[in-house]
Amino acid sequence: MVNPIDPTSAAFLYAESRTQPMHVGGLQLFEKPEGAGRDYARQMYAAMSAPEEIAPLFLKRPHRSIGTAGQLVWVPDEHFDIEHHVRHSALPRPGRVRELLDLCSRLHSQRLAWERPLWEAHIIEGLRDGRVAMYTKTHHALVDGVSAMRLLASVLTTDPERRDMPAPWAARPASAKAQRTREAAESSLAQVPMSALRSAYGLTAEAAGLPSALVKTITRGLRNETSAVSLYAPRTMFNQSITGSRRFAAQDWPIERMRAIGQATGSTINDVVLAMCSGALRAYLIDHDALPDTGLVAMVPVGLNAKQAQVASADGGNAVGSVMVQLATDLDDPAARLVAIHRSMRDGKQALSSMTPTQILAMSAIGMAPSILTPMLRMQGLVRPPFNVIISNVPGPRSTQYLNGAKLVGTYPLSIPINGMALNITCTSYDGKMGFGLTGCRRTVPHLQRLLGHLDNELTALERAAGAR
Amino acid sequence: MVNPIDPTSAAFLYAESRTQPMHVGGLQLFEKPEGAGRDYARQMYAAMSAPEEIAPLFLKRPHRSIGTAGQLVWVPDEHFDIEHHVRHSALPRPGRVRELLDLCSRLHSQRLAWERPLWEAHIIEGLRDGRVAMYTKTHHALVDGVSAMRLLASVLTTDPERRDMPAPWAARPASAKAQRTREAAESSLAQVPMSALRSAYGLTAEAAGLPSALVKTITRGLRNETSAVSLYAPRTMFNQSITGSRRFAAQDWPIERMRAIGQATGSTINDVVLAMCSGALRAYLIDHDALPDTGLVAMVPVGLNAKQAQVASADGGNAVGSVMVQLATDLDDPAARLVAIHRSMRDGKQALSSMTPTQILAMSAIGMAPSILTPMLRMQGLVRPPFNVIISNVPGPRSTQYLNGAKLVGTYPLSIPINGMALNITCTSYDGKMGFGLTGCRRTVPHLQRLLGHLDNELTALERAAGAR
């Protein structure tokens, strides 16, 4: 059965190249259930690799041939082999988090072969603290980062005793609860903003015209008609061509610490996250003697409620727009940076709320498909980068989650660096902690892991400045 | 710098598909030097991944574009990143040979991406007996199995104290000994039989005409004009379309045991190897209720000395021809099978020695490029497989070898199953042991590892029959 690939997914496939793989990843850390033996990872792998049936999303692969008139289509994989997609791996000694991040960097550097369904999952043992990790990798043509998180969340439970949760890629049985979970997961998959907006506004026919709408919005931003798309960003070491090698670093900090800073300064947790990134980027660029005089600009996807955005969305919840945030990396004082970020974010959101659905649609496209955007900007003769770095903050579950009895103790997103945008910072909250996932081109962003130390320093500096410590 | 790809290499690239990756592999087992610490594998990895310079063979990748008029060419990889090619891996618990073979099966199933140089090496720790393994993978367009073995051997030494041996992919420094080693390695690389024969006989211009010569020889074989190409083979479960998943199994046995059988029965060690394979295949096919009435035919590459083959070869040594050997799997008695194999092998070699260089050239092509052959045979309207299984026996070093102090204790080849030829058996001798490497399509050859038990049983049965035990 041959199915057409929708234009958004196709764009992610066409944009893919050796230096720019288009998959998102997730790293989850689990504590074994009590009484689990040394072969627990093997059991977890066995359970994950033996679903009764695989969901269609995970069985299709892209295909292009003379028979399809050169168009990309989805075809089912006739030789589907779960052992290719679900794997059991181990860390070399000494099994620190460092070895885990090395393995994830390596796995995230490898393109998914189009000749098979575009996903992989690795159950990883060998952490010296006994935890078990899972790294998953899914092509952006199948899911975006938020949907991938939701899909994973749909197989977690707050009940540590439950043991019958399916693998994320399993076709779900029709029990009432599982069915609802399933439907929720499917609707979140359908909720990739562009698709959702397209169906909501009947814009499908306009899909081919999207790029021009997008560029129009950005060009307007250049002329400063809206501060949400203030595209005046300095050149930095992050805004260069990239290679296909990735470095991934991750760590989490208690949300309580960020909340305390926010409360003391009248800013949001998200403002504090951005201020941490700002301070860390500043310190990193100073280390490399590469801090520009002008402050860096971050592209920050933000949630808009349905009414505000005038957008119908599957769970009555949020649609996504983007704000260009002045990171104020040129300021020396952490408190002053936080104030500037708070103001820039507030202005941007206000501008966004006054935008038309088409503008929001275009902004969403920036968030979802920067790789598609970049070549277009070049065509428009823009020489400066529209922004310097993408910083996303994806909300995750607030309560402790379990996967068949294994307690989820950490979850970190791996994202997509693109040409001209060598560093991506994606955060996700879970169970009182904010997990930062930093994904960069290894060559363009050397010693990426040092940003973790800078983030930690900056959090402490903000606490001091806010009198929250 | 763009270099044309010679037709043989190009044929291996064109023949490659998802179900038919065209790389050869090698698995080496090392014992740590005395006093080596727990992080020895990491040190080995560090040494392997930091050569001062990489040999050009390992820096080029295939490329095809409008600029090359659609032709495949070699281009240097501008973004070469050794960390993509040399990797440090670990085995899940309990770290038995079984987990090692599982990992090798998985690694061998993955195609090498053309966008990078066509090789990988994995330093593998986590074997519970403390040994360290190395799995290497090289595209057949770069080297054939024999050359790959020689390349590896060129960085080994009989001196356990030596520590300055380079990685196989390092550009060698110009010390006299290293230079000789290097030249020997390069000449063996150049010695891919077809290329060697082409240059020796000035056949380069005829290269495009090779297939027709090849088919002519085979067609003659069909009419029984030479017993070296007796193509009457039964259909078996091995002679079907394959998938891209591989299973690898390996084990070694003392050559002394095979020699004793040979001496007692007037056969060669190679005859005994073939008899072991014959008995094992028979037992395996009986297990699957799939033993054909007619005996299986094996395609066996054989060495011919230069004079006999009338072929100049780089080291004055051997060129390679192929003999179709009747495996006599229809006979119940191990001793009778050995006698039949010995006779078939002898007849085939005699026939081969009477062949013209062009015929030998064609036969070599069968050995080196069965994947190219198969579609041609189909075009010729042949419905039966020309043979059932490929069994190669590649001589390796006879004395104990060391890699920077680590003792090589086992070496096993991984080869290329192709459509219609789902099982490949390649043996390699080393330090008094014969290592059997069985590479098969996992779906077409289920429970491949059971062949190891059958091989062991057959060796014992042959010893009993020969009175050698």
List the helices and strands and how they pair.
Two copies of one chain form a homodimer.
Chain A: E1 3-4, H1 7-15, E2 23-31, H2 40-48, E3 60-63, E4 73-76, H3 82-85, E5 86-90, H4 97-109, E6 119-125, E7 132-139, H5 145-153, H6 176-190, H7 193-200, H8 210-222, E8 246-254, H9 255-265, H10 269-287, E9 297-305, H11 306-309, E10 318-326, H12 334-353, H13 357-368, H14 370-379, E11 389-394, E12 402-403, E13 406-414, E14 423-430, E15 433-441, H15 450-466
Parallel strand pairs in A: 5-6, 9-11, 11-14
Antiparallel strand pairs in A: 1-4, 2-7, 2-13, 3-4, 6-7, 8-15, 9-10, 12-13, 14-15
Helix pairs in contact in A: 5-6, 8-13, 9-10, 9-15, 10-12, 10-15
Plain-language structure description:
- Chain A has 469 residues and is of the alpha+beta class.
- Chain A has 2 domains: 3-186, 2-Layer Sandwich (Chloramphenicol Acetyltransferase), CATH 3.30.559; 209-466, Chloramphenicol Acetyltransferase, CATH 3.30.559.30.
- The first copy, chain A, has helices spanning 7-15, 40-48, 82-85, 97-109, 145-153, 176-190, 193-200, 210-222, 255-265, 269-287, 306-309, 334-353, 357-368, 370-379, 450-466, and strands at residues 3-4, 23-31, 60-63, 73-76, 86-90, 119-125, 132-139, 246-254, 297-305, 318-326, 389-394, 402-403, 406-414, 423-430, 433-441.
- In chain A, strands 5-6-7-2-13-12 form a 6-stranded mixed β-sheet, sandwiched between helices.
- In chain A, a hairpin with a 6-residue loop joins β6 and β7.
- Chain A is globular, with a radius of gyration of 22 Å.
- The A-B interface holds A 18-19, 38-39, 41-42, 79, 81, 83-84, 87-94, 106, 109-111, 113, 115-116, 125-126, 243-245, 442-443 and B 18-19, 38-39, 41-42, 79, 81, 83-84, 87-94, 106, 109-111, 113, 115-116, 125-126, 243-245, 442-443.
